[in-house]
């Protein structure tokens, strides 16, 4: 039902969709949205003690709930001798065992929730998980707080540069997020008149997307437009909202060259932690009302405060970071991203770069329902091999049905493997 409603919303004519997009989020998502937005805004002024007390209370509640309701957590904590451990400090919490995707895959049948989602993760390792009924209200309350640091308001129009498949359209209005989606699988020069018309008719105020996609969009504009025209395009832009990838220095230089103020944030589909980089310098600050972060070695761990349907406790995100600010008892309040969110890409037959963030994670692939890992390899433009690593038998004649690869000018071969291909150092990569 939710998917059907969303599909109807996304295909409304612009005038109708635009009118609906002006509806305040407190009416769309309920009172939970307003409550979370108010709390998150307050947290920006909390003292260290206030922040720690809030987080400790949330951690104590989620751990106790997990022990009481889920046999997998009961067994895990008893095996490690911490079932009766009282969470009286953040130091106590750090004594609990670390969980990962394998743990939740093994015990997924024990959980249920309002929504079942899946993600490919940053290394192409599919993972299914449940979220609670207030997840979207909580998510958008915090996201709007972050975007608001660049003076964003939900009634302002975005130009969205992500990986969504627009089929035969070059530009499509999405009233759900009040944005014009751009087909990032096509070269800008192929539909430049539409771009010109869009900027002339609509007041585009923000650009929202993957760093690699935004960067490529500007580079492609530079190939077919004068510098003066590009500056006219970008003059109304108040900010660039970046996510899902690490913005490299050469990308930052490009954005700065057009005087585009940026904000970047770290999050993941599992919704355990959320952080923002307001200064665009790889200094991500945690939002303490969203979740709890730790760094063990270089591994970033996250604990969800609010998802009682499927608690992620000391969950290994798979991302590598350097802690920049740590509490007295070990909680990480700020970090720099080391690896795990690179802007890998393949090239189509015309040499256009297609970010894997868009191709693999920006589309809805059935492969994530059956695969343990997904990897991709390319030796020449326009041809690529996708390796589907599955723990179950998959008929070889139906492999392409597991992927949405339409409207991508690349010939794909798909092979099933029993094991992923690792680097010499034994690391798992999406692109090999």
Could you outline the blueprint of secondary structure elements for this entry?
Elements: H1 2-10, H2 14-21, H3 25-29, H4 31-43, H5 48-69, H6 71-79, H7 90-93, H8 101-106, E1 115-119, E2 127-131, H9 135-147, E3 157-161, E4 171-174, E5 179-182, H10 192-201, E6 204-209, H11 211-224, H12 227-234, E7 239-243, H13 249-257, E8 262-266, E9 275-277, E10 284-286, E11 291-296, E12 299-304, E13 315-326, E14 332-339, E15 345-347, E16 353-355, H14 356-361, E17 371-380, E18 383-390, E19 411-417
Parallel strand pairs: 3-5, 3-6, 6-7, 7-8, 18-19
Antiparallel strand pairs: 1-2, 4-5, 8-9, 9-10, 10-14, 11-12, 12-13, 13-14, 15-16, 17-18
Helix pairs in contact: 4-9, 5-6
List its salient traits.
alpha/beta; 14 helices; globular
Descriptive account of the structure:
- With 432 residues, the chain is of the alpha/beta class.
- Among the domains are: 47-131 and 288-331, no CATH class; 364-417, no CATH class.
- 31% of the residues lie in helices and 25% in strands.
- The chain is built from 14 helices and 19 strands.
- The chain has helices at 2-10, 14-21, 25-29, 31-43, 48-69, 71-79, 90-93, 101-106, 135-147, 192-201, 211-224, 227-234, 249-257, 356-361, and strands at 115-119, 127-131, 157-161, 171-174, 179-182, 204-209, 239-243, 262-266, 275-277, 284-286, 291-296, 299-304, 315-326, 332-339, 345-347, 353-355, 371-380, 383-390, 411-417.
- The strands form 4 sheets. A 12-stranded mixed β-sheet has the order 4-5-3-6-7-8-9-10-14-13-12-11, with helices on both faces.
- Strand 13 and strand 14 (332-339) form a beta hairpin.
- Helix 4 packs across helix 9 (135-147) and helix 5 (48-69) packs across helix 6 (71-79).
- It is globular.
């Amino acid at each position: 039902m939710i998917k059907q409603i969303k599909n109807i919303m996304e295909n409304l004519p612009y005038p109708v969709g635009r009118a609906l997009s002006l509806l305040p989020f407190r009416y769309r998502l309920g009172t939970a949205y307003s409550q979370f937005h108010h709390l998150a805004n307050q947290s920006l002024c909390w003292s260290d003690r206030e922040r720690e007390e809030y987080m400790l209370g949330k951690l104590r509640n989620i751990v106790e709930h997990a022990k009481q309701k889920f046999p997998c957590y009961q067994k895990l904590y008893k095996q490690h001798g911490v079932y009766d451990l009282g969470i009286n400090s953040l130091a106590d919490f750090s004594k609990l065992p670390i969980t990962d995707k394998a743990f939740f895959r093994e015990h997924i049948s024990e959980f249920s929730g309002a929504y079942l989602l899946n993600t490919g993760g940053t290394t192409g390792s599919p993972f299914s998980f449940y979220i609670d009924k207030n997840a979207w209200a909580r998510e958008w309350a915090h996201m709007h707080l972050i975007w608001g640091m660049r003076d964003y308001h939900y009634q302002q129009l975005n130009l969205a540069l992500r990986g969504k498949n627009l089929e035969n359209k070059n530009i499509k209005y999405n009233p759900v997020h009040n944005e014009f989606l751009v087909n990032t699988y096509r070269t800008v020069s192929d539909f430049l008149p539409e771009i010109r018309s869009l900027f002339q008719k609509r007041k585009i105020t923000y650009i929202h997307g993957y760093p690699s996609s935004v960067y490529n969009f500007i580079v492609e504009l530079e190939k077919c437009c004068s510098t003066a025209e590009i500056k006219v395009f970008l003059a109304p832009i108040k900010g660039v909202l970046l996510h899902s990838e690490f913005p490299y220095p050469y990308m930052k230089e490009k954005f700065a060259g057009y005087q585009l103020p940026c904000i970047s944030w770290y999050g993941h589909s599992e919704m355990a932690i959320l952080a923002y980089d307001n200064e665009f310098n790889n200094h991500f600050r945690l939002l303490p009302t969203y979740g709890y972060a730790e760094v063990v070695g270089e591994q970033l761990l996250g604990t969800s405060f609010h998802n009682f349907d499927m608690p992620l406790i000391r969950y290994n995100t798979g991302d590598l970071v350097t802690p920049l600010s740590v509490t007295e008892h070990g909680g990480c309040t700020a970090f720099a991203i080391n690896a795990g969110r690179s802007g890998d890409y393949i090239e189509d037959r015309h040499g256009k770069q297609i970010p894997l963030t868009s191709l693999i994670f920006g589309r809805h692939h059935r492969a994530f329902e059956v695969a343990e890992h997904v990897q991709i390899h390319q030796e020449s433009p326009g041809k690529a091999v996708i390796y589907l690593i599955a723990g179950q038998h998959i008929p070889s004649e139906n492999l392409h049905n597991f992927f949405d690869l339409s409207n991508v000018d690349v010939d794909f071969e798909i092979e099933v493997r029993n094991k992923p291909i690792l680097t010499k150092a034994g690391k798992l990569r999406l692109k090999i």
